[in-house]
Design goal:
By secondary structure, the chain is mainly α. Helices cover 55% and strands 4% of the residues.
Length: 328
Amino acid sequence: MMATNSCCAECGEEGGVTLKICKACMFVRYCNASCQHKHWPTHKKLCKLRATELRDEALFKDPPAKEECPICFVPMPITIISCASLPPATISSVPIYDFAIANENENVVNQDRHKYTEEYYPCCGKGICRGCVHSFRKSGNIAKCPFCNSDRADKTDEERFEQMMERIEANDAASMCMLSSHYYRGVGGLQQDHSKSMELLAKAADLGFTKAHSRLGYLYELGGDWKKANFHNEAAAMAGHEIARCNLGLMEYNSGNMERAVKHWTISASGGCYQSMHHLRESFEGGYVSRELIDSTLTTYNNSCAEMRSESRDEYIRFVTEFADSLS
């Protein structure tokens, strides 16, 4: 409910739309800051209640459409498993672990969950899915940018750093995230610097970059700062990041809020997140989720996974699986 009153909530002075609305609850108006301050003891309880309701409305609404790969135009997956062409999931098979080696082997897919679903080209500020990268590798064009055709293979670490800095100066949030990852792990010719890494992520998050919010949520979880972790996970979840929403469900579950946990996992699983589908299955077996909900969510889960599948992504998954097998 939006504010429709035309009078100041404290002094009653009429002013219509010229009155300043309370930005927390969007329900009452004031003629000035002094009236708002005086009215706060009376308004405080209702304001916080309404602000929580508004926050939940935004948090649990349907997420936006998935970003598509600009080469193949197939929705971009958050994790590799989402786009694996496997038999449809059932209650007994969720999550599907047939590609576990490709997804979890540290020699092939690093534990950094944001790294291996797409390839980023700092020269153009665009990312493409790993299926398309694999297709370029097969065609012998892996060293060329598919957008500007610039050579990527012969660049030194210093040249790549300068390229990323040019993109960062142009407020390219994806480049900020990439450089943040380099600083965090101490690669690409850079010394490990977690403070610099977090600084870059915060700047990218301020620009509204979903993956930066998710990464910050993950790092704050590791550091035990649950308030900041929750804030960034919520921002990422509302932008459609399924893993961030799955983590919100876990946080609610650990706090004893099972109903809210199930809401998060249902939305996340419907977007193709196998971790959330697994949590829902466990919740179903524990009697917290109805058969109707689990069946309907499985349907949307399978449909979302199907939308993210392609022949080139299947080939990429087989490629990393075979490579992992050769290392074992």
